[in-house]
Amino acid sequence: MIEARELTKRYGDKTVVDTLSFTVKPGEVTGFLGPNGAGKSTTMRMIVGLDTPTKGSVTVGGRSYAKHAAPLHEIGTLLEAKSVHPGRSAFNHLMALAYTHGIPRRRVEEVIELAGLTSVAGKRVGAFSLGMGQRLGIASALLGDPAIVMLDEPVNGLDPEGVLWVRNLLRGLADEGRAVMLSSHLMSETALIADHLVIIGRGRLLADTTACDFTREAGGGGVKVATTEAMRLRPLLAGPDVTISSSSAEELLVTGRDAHEIGAIAAQHGVPLYELTPKAVSLEAAFMDLTRDAVEYQSAPAGTERKAA
Amino acid sequence: MPTTALHRSRRPGPGKGRNLSAAPEPKVPATPRTAYKVTGIRVLRSEWAKFWSLRSTWITLGVAVVLLILFGAIASYTYSPDAVATSGPPGPGSSDVDSDAVSLALTGVSFAQLAIGVLGVLLSAGEYSTGMIRSTLAAVPRRLPVLWSKAAVIGPIALVLTTVGALAAFQLGVPGLDGEKIALSLGDDGVLRALAGAGVYLGLVAVFGVALGVLIRSSAGAIAALVGVLLILPGLASLLPDSWYDTLSPYFPSNAGSAVYALHQSSDALTPGAGLAVFAGWVALTLAGAAFRLVRTDA
């Protein structure tokens, strides 16, 4: 369990994390989302005590991270894939971390195998591809058999097979009762793994919700109706909470009624329809809507697509 | 779903997992939560493993010892009292008193100290430049044990190896000085003390490098500081007024350090014991600054 309370980090007069409170619960995968520069990495660094909060506090398993006798057993982290000396082999890197806790060599071999690094364990990490570096980072996160697993952008640089592996791995870890937290700037990817979503922008909490709720709310994009008798259908559909707009003589955009209802009403009154299309808003678009004002590095209008990338 | 092959040694209950049908793992609540625990000895063991698992360690240590032996032996073989006498203006009291068998054997110290100091810097600042420090401090969030362990690993290793190197340089030089009036043997008064003093000095230089690395957090910056303090500072200081210079210069790190391994104490230098205390003081001061920065600033 991770509990952040009014966590704040300032560098000079720039506030990177702003009174952020959230909880990461055991048995769940919590997605930690935000555009680049939103303060995700800084928050994660504060969780494991690499940075000291300017104000507020964060506890890991009820205590501040540094107070644990065996920190790697409380929370395993992947902060940046390259938190490794490139001159050391993967095995020696993991072994060096294992020594600090008295973790046996057997466990090191276990996580190497689990991460699929057996064939390259003796190679210098400097020669690793980005994906192999991520796998090594995940292996070191799991080394201490931790109650909480926290990964910063774990799928960066992984091939599709690797992405699937991470997804299944995290699901499995949560099912074992561990708390899993992963950060990402990709909504659609995260929605596939996460139970819970914590979305931040410019260091502030924008949303703290379940993935289901977020997906459901994102679905409310209205229904496009095309009919030759738009003028007659319009008043029939009207009602409280229903808004109807029209872009041409034969088209209506209805929100507040789903396609099922609209079809039924039209049939009841004998209005012929030739198109009835629910317009789903993609999760990515919903995420961008939410974070639009909070994007740190705004690109030119033509590059709107890249904002969340 | 593939199994994650993790076996939890002590977490109570599977939590609110989805696999509610799974039989509860047999757990003995009375056992301690885990055998994993960070201790000082374990951090030391980790730093020892880190030290030897880098190729650059072996290269730098090798270079230091080879420089020490090579320059010492060459200086002894090429020594000629006539050359010394003719190089300066001939006159009474021309100072070839400065050359003795030990100082010749230790010619390489000024080169070896750079290699050893750089090794110390790489051990600490190298973690900052590669990002390794994040992994290190995540494992040991109390941080200070990491600094003490790095110093405790590299100091003794450098001390032992360079003492052996100094002894070897001296012994290899003995035949080269055969018949010269400055020739000495290991058994002579103060010889062993001076040679071991070189090892102690270089061991402290290694710790100095570690401290500079943690203080400055950049390999290039820390190496520059090391060279500045050990080689350039004495030269710069000669710009000071003479009376100041004469009073202060024995206390410069490099001058205090060279007093530790001098066979004969020159008139303007500290005794070996005092030199050791002063140089160790400089190292301790730097180490304290490094400890302060390590604990107080974000990694």
Quick structural overview:
The complex is a heterodimer of chains A (309) and B (299). Chain A is of the alpha/beta class. Chain A has helices at residues 40-47, 71-74, 90-101, 105-114, 130-142, 160-175, 187-193, 211-218, 230-237, 259-268, 283-291, and strands spanning 2-11, 14-24, 29-33, 55-60, 75-78, 148-152, 179-184, 196-201, 204-210, 223-227, 243-248, 251-255, 273-278.
What does this 3D model show about the protein?
- The complex is a heterodimer of chains A (309) and B (299).
- Chain A is of the alpha/beta class.
- In chain A, the strands form 3 sheets. A 6-stranded mixed beta sheet of chain A has the order 5-6-7-3-8-9, sandwiched between helices.
- In chain A, β8 and β9 (204-210) form a beta hairpin.
- Chain A has helices at residues 40-47, 71-74, 90-101, 105-114, 130-142, 160-175, 187-193, 211-218, 230-237, 259-268, 283-291; strands at 2-11, 14-24, 29-33, 55-60, 75-78, 148-152, 179-184, 196-201, 204-210, 223-227, 243-248, 251-255, 273-278.
- Chain A contains 11 helices and 13 strands.
- Chain B is an all-alpha fold.
- Chain B contains 12 helices and no strands.
- Chain B starts with 39 loop residues before the first helix and ends with a helix.
- Chains A and B meet through α2, α3, α4 and α6 of A and α1, α5 and α6 of B.
CATH architecture field of the largest domain in chain A: 3-Layer(aba) Sandwich
Low-confidence stretches of chain A: 303-309
Determine Rg of chain B (CA atoms, Å).
Answer: 26 Å
* SS-derived structural category of chain B: mainly alpha
Q: Please tell me the overall pLDDT of chain A.
A: 88
How does the major sheet of chain A shape up? 6 strands, mixed
Number of strands of chain A: 13
Number of domains of chain A: 2
CATH superfamily of the largest domain in chain A: P-loop containing nucleotide triphosphate hydrolases
Count of DSSP strands of chain B: 0
Structural class of chain A: alpha/beta
Domain module tally of chain B: 1
Instruction: List low-pLDDT spans of chain B.
Output: 1-32, 85-97
Beta-strand portion of chain B reads: under 5%
Question: In the CATH scheme, what's the topology name of the largest domain in chain A?
Answer: Rossmann fold
General shape of chain A: elongated
Sheet having the most strands of chain B: none
